[in-house]
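Record now logged underneath.
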Amino acid sequence: MRRRFALAVFAALLVAAAQTWVHAAAAPGRVVSRIRDTGRITFGYRADAGPFAYTDNSGMPAGYSVALCQKIADEAKRELNLPALKVEWKPVVFEERFRALQLGEIDLLCGADTVTLARRSEADFSIPIFPGGIGALLRADAPARLREVLSGRGQPFHPVWRANATQLLQARDFAVVTGTTAETWLEKRMNDLEVVAGVALVKSYDEGVQRVLNRRADVFFGDRAILFDAAKRHAGGRDLVVLDRFFTYEPMALALAPDNDDFRLLVDRALSRVYRSGDISQLYAKSFGDPDQDALTFFRWNTLPE
């Protein structure tokens, strides 16, 4: 009996030790150590956030952020002396993306996330990778006056213009992806203008586009680059238009788990080298067209010196 008891205790200790080791290996605060120990780096990506991250026709991850993450993997191979480093791609849903980082399920989130103070309580971020901002999508046959107001034409500070704009936006139906900065911004703008309108909270950009096509929403607000890509890919894209206006300016970055300064340094070094070498122009062009001077200036300003 004593022998059986001793064996049982020993087995229990082994199980506890194994669980502790697994938990430590998955802990988000040991990303670089985990990469060294496993010879593997795991990237999370959004499958529905083109042109930043999406699943292509062959079922593989693709997009601007995905290409940047591949550059980061190349940097990890060099810096950590892991030429056989295995890269794994894991799709994550929008609502669970930061939790996947916190649990150590992924090492880096290759998506399209705006850096906000609220989000910095959940995750850390790389240097900015894209000059984002909120835009508006509507039907091509939308009333000309609605397009004019949304485009910002007129005198916003003029009381008469403000009253006319507010009146025009009353009783309109808007759509926005829930949990995004666009949702927060739209709520505040409606309160500022005292606009009473219906707001549909959708789960994806494709759903928002479809609401506009079906005339269930007059305007769909979201990140302008993603709106443009969603409209371009949609079968009814010819009936849609994305306004030139940016309602906000929001730097986007790659997210990683907090308390990983060594891994963040590796990520920022890789991105800075891509920016400094000029390779960013080619990566940018594949998803957004040739970068203009404003975009090139953005990357120059965000390149960290060695």
Remarks:
- Confidence is low (pLDDT under 50) at residues 5-28, 157-163.
